[in-house]
Amino acid sequence: MNWTVPTVALLLMSLSGCILTRDGTTAPPAQWPLQQAQVGGKSITLNVIIDEQPKGEKAKMGTDALLGLRSQAVKAYTTSGLFSSVLTDGEPADLIADIVIIEKGSEGLSWSAALSTVTFTVIPGRVPQELTVKTEYKNRDRKVIGYVEKHEELGFWIEFFLLFAMPFADGPNTVMNAAQYDLQRLTIGEAHVKGLF
Q: Helix (H, G, I), strand (E, B), or coil: what is residue 19?
């Protein structure tokens, strides 16, 4: 018996494309930077933390992932035009921002992902993911002066025909970095409107 046709069919069914998308409800700020860089403005220290996962398991993100999250926060605070300097790792500054980032996926397969799995990804499936940024602002004396929390819903689409769209779409890391950067900018904007800095 010739196994070429069944082998090729199984290989094609095992291929699938995947794309990470944003839900579109979190729009970036209308004005950025918020104002021109200030001479003699306040300095801020950023402490970026990855929170525990819902089941009590520590996030298994490596050092590279933490550096990526920190770089998005530093980029947002630096480009805001509100601070004379942006520091990391607990260096002394006028303000302290404790930033907790939570990436939470679904607790299992959604119904659409299960249907996609059963049909060998011919029918598209979506696995939801939520990105949350919780920021607590403190003054030099470590007294809490304010708190801001922002969310973004993301969807990880899986489908055979997305395989052909993948070269033309932004990769998951690019989409996640853009979402994190926008959430940081929205956090800074809300804190500025509240008069925290």
A: strand
Two tokens at 14?
């095992």
> 98: which strand partners?
47, 136
Report the candidate in 188, 170, 171 with the shortest Cα–Cα distance to residue 74: 188
Q: Mind listing the pLDDT tens digit for each residue in 20-36?
A: 889 887 888 888 887 66
Q: In angstroms, how far apart are the furthest CA atoms of the chain?
A: 80
Q: Which amino acid is at 123?
A: I
First vs last C-alpha separation in the chain: 75
Q: What is the pLDDT of residues 127-153, one digit of tens each?
A: 888 999 999 999 999 999 999 999 999
pTM: 0.82
Token pair belonging to 91 = 């260096």
User: What distance in Å separates the CA atoms of residue 108 and residue 143, rounded to the nearest whole number?
Assistant: 40
Q: Which residues contact 124 (CB under 8 A, 6 or more apart)?
A: 112, 116, 157, 158, 159, 162
- Which residue in 131, 130, 129, 134 sits closest to 187, CA to CA? 134
What the chain holds in terms of domains, given with CATH numbers, is 18-193 (3.30.160)
* Planar angle of CA 32, 36, 37, nearest 5 degrees: 115
